[in-house]
Design a protein that fits this description.
This protein is of the alpha/beta class. The protein folds into three domains: about 150 residues, no CATH class; about 90 residues; about 120 residues, Roll (CBS-domain). The chain is built from ten helices and ten strands. The chain has a four-stranded mixed sheet with strand order 4-5-6-7. The chain has a three-stranded mixed sheet with strand order 1-2-3, with helices on one face. A three-stranded mixed sheet has the order 8-9-10. Helix 2 packs antiparallel against helix 3, helix 2 runs parallel beside helix 4 and helix 6 packs antiparallel against helix 7. It is elongated, with a radius of gyration of 26 Å. The two termini are about 35 Å apart. The chain binds zinc ion. The site of zinc ion (ZN) has 5 residues, from helix 2. Zinc ion binds next to helix 2.
């Protein structure tokens, strides 16, 4: 088996790592060990940050290992600071696969937490004891937080998988989404109540509020993505082609129909490229200026060579994902050598 997985460290990671090293070595460890030297505190802070990084990585690796074991393609593993994301090229997974795939991550985190707690018992020095305690705590927190039954957290996926054992797909997604939003709102509300001292929680109120809000937004995006995925399951990209407007390159902009959703340009009857409809609208609203005697549709043409290409029988979801991830504005859809139409980013966004 050839494994083609990209490992990505998200750019925010470095900044947050510096912040964590700083707060651990200036604040957390010195408060536990007042006699700690500056250098040793810094060393502990760096070690703790690195161990946290390895812990998050092992959590994601567990997801990836199970996916590989199941013959699924893992496109990338991205490490954010307090978590990661294993991007698995998923068709609709069987519920049992979905459940185990989600479960292995938190299991690894919780096991790591317990292992660090055991190792802590034989720690040779007090600083080491605190370091191991900290990492154990973080791993237990990481594992249990991810088990919250809110999508897109692991716990949400487990819950969604369990629902699917009993209910149809759409209904399962709806139920899982309702619970996810409720949990996110509950966290945010608890955070606000704590900030105004109406509740007294052991966690920081502001932090809970941000976490709840973030979880809510993540849940929304995830719902859209999953709805789209369900709608597109087993469809070809050809079945989604919008009506095509063909316009000769020499046509004045003013003569191009207003309601065109996808425009292909032609020259002597041959297709030469496409026009980004969003760009056309900006020109029309005079947000972009073009000299009056040059204002033909050809001026806005994106030549065929600068576009991606796909076949009419290609899988809809995969092709759309390809489009959204690429820097190119559209994908030309062909049937053999014949051009059947174009799918643009703008068009996709409007449909979602
Ligand atoms: Zn996970």
């Amino acid at each position: 088996m050839i494994i083609k997985t990209k490992f990505i460290i998200h750019s925010s990671w470095y900044l947050l790592a510096l912040l964590l090293v700083y707060s651990l070595s200036q604040d957390y460890f010195p408060s536990l060990l007042p006699s700690l030297s500056f250098f040793n505190a810094l060393l502990l802070g760096i070690l703790a940050t690195l161990l946290l990084f390895v812990s998050v990585f092992l959590h994601e690796l567990a997801h990836a290992l199970y996916a590989w074991h199941k013959g699924l393609k893992v496109e990338s593993i991205t490490l954010f600071f307090f978590g990661g994301l294993a991007h698995i090229e998923e068709e609709q997974l069987a519920p049992s696969t979905e459940i185990i795939l989600a479960l292995v991550g938190p299991l690894v985190s919780i096991s790591l937490g317990l292992i660090f707690l055991i190792v802590q018992r034989v720690a040779l020095s007090l600083p080491l004891w605190h370091l191991l305690g900290y990492i154990a705590e973080v791993n237990l927190l990481l594992g249990s937080f991810n088990l919250l039954p809110a999508l897109p957290l692991d716990g949400g996926r487990i819950f969604y998988g369990l629902l699917r054992l009993k209910f149809p797909l759409q209904k399962s997604l709806r139920m899982a989404t309702v619970l996810s939003k409720a949990i996110a709102l509950l966290l945010a509300t608890a955070g606000i109540l704590d900030m105004f001292s109406i509740l007294n929680l052991p966690a920081s109120g502001l932090w809970l509020f941000l976490l709840g809000g973030f979880l809510y937004l993540l849940g929304e995006t995830n719902e859209q993505h999953m709805t789209l995925q369900h709608a597109l399951a087993h469809k070809t990209i050809g079945s989604l082609l919008p009506p095509m407007t063909r316009v000769d390159e020499s046509t004045p902009l003013a003569d191009v129909p207003d309601n065109a959703t996808a425009i292909l340009t032609t020259k002597k009857g041959k297709i030469t490229g496409m026009v980004d409809v969003a760009l056309l609208k900006r020109v029309r609203r005079r947000l972009l200026r073009i000299p009056p005697n040059h204002d033909t549709i050809g001026r806005l043409r994106i030549p065929l060579e600068r576009l991606d290409h796909a076949d009419i029988t290609d899988d809809a979801m995969k092709t759309l994902n390809r489009l959204l991830r690429s820097s190119k504005p559209g994908i030309i859809i062909r049937q053999g050598k014949r051009i059947k139409g174009v799918i643009t980013k703008e068009g996709v966004m409007r449909k979602v």
